[in-house]
Amino acid sequence: MISLLSGLLFGAAAVAAPTTFNKRAPSGVPQYVVDYAPLVWLDDRDVYRPSDIAAQVDHTTPKVDRNPISGYPQPLTLSNLDALNSYGDGGENVYLTSNDDVTTVPDWLTGAQPNAEGETEGAKTAVVITVDHGGGKLDAFYMYFWAFNWGGTVLDINLGNHVGDWEHNMIRFQDGEPQALWYSQHSRGQAFEYQAVEKEGKRPYAYAANGTHALYAMAGTHDHTIPNLNLPAGFLEDHTQRGTLWDPALSAYWYSFNPSDQTFTPYDGAPVAYLNYKGRWGDDRYPDSDSRQFNFFGFRRYEGGPTGPKFKTLDRELVCPDNDPPCIVLPIKVPRE
Q: Which segments does the entry list as coiled coil (predicted)?
């Protein structure tokens, strides 16, 4: 069903997109953060496109232990979502749970198709966060949102699906010059020197995997059985292609983050509360008694939703998240194309 829907929805997207994009950012954002903002190649086999962040709130109900909670502000919006931190152990056990059966693939799960300029018109699908460490060192996080993650197959069995999906690139700058990039891949990822990656002018490319949206530095097949190691084939494979080019910077909210007090400041009056929400951006893992669930030696067809941007190690010392040692910044793309 996935491949059929993808062909019907996005078959025309294989036409090459323009390679020059208008760059838009509010006043105060360092110009180099805009100039080097990544471009993302989407896989045209993927039904699930980048999604409007606010729409995720509109189509879900907050639950704890799979039971709806009450007493929170209604309607919930990106401007009051952190009110849910009063429930479920400080918000950590709150799940924004789909109002629809996700197996029916409701329209809001399939997101927004980028137009010819790479913009997801009418949908804010990305968040850009700058973290100034002083001494000329600044990290820029480019966070990308999808309403649904299709986990792919293992031995022809679909596993690892979940509602809500945050992935990101991070570029470390020194005195305005890009030094290295991080590509998030599931709970881990890879780091590369800036000079090593493929680019459109100054702007590095990222390739979002079919369904899982893990980010890679090249097109092709990527086995991630061994964390932080990208092999051309194996047991757990992601697949990327140069399909539709998406420019997340055209449809983003922009912020700075202060690690000392853990606060966000919008560059342009964007909502902030949703960034402080401590819960999950999707359903809780379905119990094995649920007819949609499947248990394959402890791996489930449907897993729980992810946490949001604040919990992606924004105040990291190295290019890699601090909880992901060792941090190897590769000077070449591995494996080579």
A: none
Residue 251's φ and ψ, nearest 5 degrees, are: -135, 50
Question: Could you please report the per-residue DSSP string of 124-163?
Answer: --EEEEEEEEETTEEEEEEEEEEEEE---EETTEE--BEE
Alpha-carbon torsion, ordered 298, 303, 309, 311, to 10 deg? -40
The model's pTM: 0.92
Q: How far apart are CA 178 and CA 274, in angstroms?
A: 29
* pLDDT given for residue 11 in this prediction: 43
Helix (H, G, I), strand (E, B) or coil at 121: coil
What are the tens digits of pLDDT across the range 157-210?
999 999 999 999 999 999 999 999 999 998 889 999 999 999 999 999 999 999
Q: Which residues of the chain have pLDDT under 70?
A: 1-23, 224-229, 231-235, 324, 334-337
Listed by start position, the domains of the chain span 2-330
Distance CA 68, CA 246 (A): 36
Residues 6+ apart with CB under 8 A from 44: 6, 10, 11, 13, 14, 241, 243, 244
Instruction: State residue 323's pLDDT score.
Output: 74
Residue 220: alpha-carbon gap to chain centroid: 19
Q: Following DSSP, what letter does each residue of 300-312 receive, concatenated? A: ESB-PPPP-GGGT
Q: For residues 157-172, b (16+ Cβ closer than 10 Å) or e, as one string?
A: ebbbbbbbbbbbbbbb
CA 96 to CA 318: how far, in whole Å?
Answer: 31
DSSP per residue, 98-113: ESS-GGG--GGGG---
Sign of the alpha-carbon dihedral angle for 97, 101, 106, 110: positive
Q: How far apart are CA 236 and CA 222, in angstroms?
A: 8
**Can you give the pLDDT at residue 223?**
76
pLDDT at 274: 98
Asked if residue 303 lies in contact with residue 162, where contact means CB atoms within 8 angstroms, the answer is: yes
Which amino acid is present at 131?
V
- What's the pLDDT at 23? 59
CA 282 to mean position of chain CA atoms: 13
What is the length of the chain?
337
